[in-house]
Design a protein that fits this description.
Oligomer: single chain
Order of helices and strands: HHHHHHEEEEE
CATH architecture: Roll
Largest sheet: 5 strands, antiparallel
Mean pLDDT: 84
Number of domains: 1
Low-confidence stretches: 19-32
């Protein structure tokens, strides 16, 4: 196949490919918010724990409307209340039906927070999660949860 030099397909190989991948990676990395790396003060940790505990209590009571109120605005914009309930029941069974929770290390930067939580499910199994929170007008709200054993992160 002959190509005219002006319209020939541009091949990206070797060094050019590595440079392009590096530039793309650096661009994407710069768009991600930095994870909090400072331990929370006792007062901030108490606020963050209160938010997570209140949502867990709402789940235990079957009060999905109240549980939904603790989700960050981005979650509420992505999931209507019915879909939120369905997502939690399907993806976070131990959280949806927890017996109790223990709260560990808490980090924040004033706008974002991370809290390690060990949840005991209805079956007695303990699962470790990282809760991600953001500070909104009404206080700390949950923006995501990561199952530390599975290494996955969902909404």
């Amino acid at each position: 196949m002959n190509f005219h030099p002006i319209v020939a397909p541009y091949r990206i190989t070797g060094m050019r490919l590595r440079l392009l991948c590096t530039a793309l990676w650096l661009t994407l990395a710069s768009l991600l918010p930095a994870a909090p790396d400072q331990p929370s003060t006792p007062a901030v940790k108490a606020e963050i724990v209160a938010t997570v505990e209140a949502q867990l209590q709402a789940f235990r009571a079957g009060d999905w409307t109240r549980a939904y109120s603790f989700a960050a605005i981005d979650i509420r914009n992505s999931f209507p209340a019915e879909k939120f309930e369905q997502m939690v029941k399907q993806a976070y069974g131990p959280i949806a039906k927890s017996r109790k929770a223990e709260f560990g290390l808490c980090l924040d930067d004033g706008d974002q927070g991370v809290l390690n939580v060990t949840v005991e499910g209805a079956d007695g199994q303990r699962t470790q999660y990282q809760y991600y929170l953001v500070k909104e007008q009404k206080g700390w709200r949950i923006s995501g949860v990561r199952d530390l054993a599975a290494g996955s992160s969902r909404a």
